[in-house]
Design the sequence.
């Protein structure tokens, strides 16, 4: 695993994934932080945040049903980005966004497509988890939002 230069922009991944071990580190970090982010999003989301999450989630479902993995994956990433924005916590966004950006890296995508989303049933389970996270945020239920995000990352492990 290599670090990027300290002056790398927020749109740049924090690290370059070069191995399965690096993917596991990203998953562990996100599993530690994203449930709390989901909880904060449920507490602090604004109507426009919820609109964005719903729009992105609808696109995720559409592309999953149509079997467009690359488009689905782009909207999956956008869902996590929108969730971070909904926290209204700029520091948390700055910390977590580089981890979310690693979803664009080839090794991460290969891992996800070959293991996490390897079957139509697995795809349905992932969509269901995202739906439950979205509903908890919509209901402004921080405990449920954190629980569903934790389930998401336990499944990734």
Sequence:
């Amino acid at each position: 695993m290599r670090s990027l230069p300290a002056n790398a922009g927020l749109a740049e991944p924090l690290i370059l994934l070069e191995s399965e071990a690096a993917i596991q580190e990203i998953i562990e970090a996100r599993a530690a932080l994203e449930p709390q982010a989901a909880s904060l999003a449920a507490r602090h989301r604004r109507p426009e945040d919820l609109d964005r999450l719903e729009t992105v989630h609808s696109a995720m479902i559409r592309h999953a049903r149509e079997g467009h993995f690359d488009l689905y994956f782009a909207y999956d990433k956008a869902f996590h980005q929108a969730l971070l924005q909904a926290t209204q916590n700029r520091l948390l966004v700055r910390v977590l966004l580089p981890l979310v950006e690693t979803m664009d890296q080839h090794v991460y995508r290969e891992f996800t497509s070959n293991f996490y989303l390897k079957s139509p049933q697995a795809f349905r389970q992932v969509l269901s988890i995202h739906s439950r996270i979205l509903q908890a945020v919509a209901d402004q239920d921080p405990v449920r939002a954190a629980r569903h995000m934790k389930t998401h990352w336990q499944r990734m492990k």
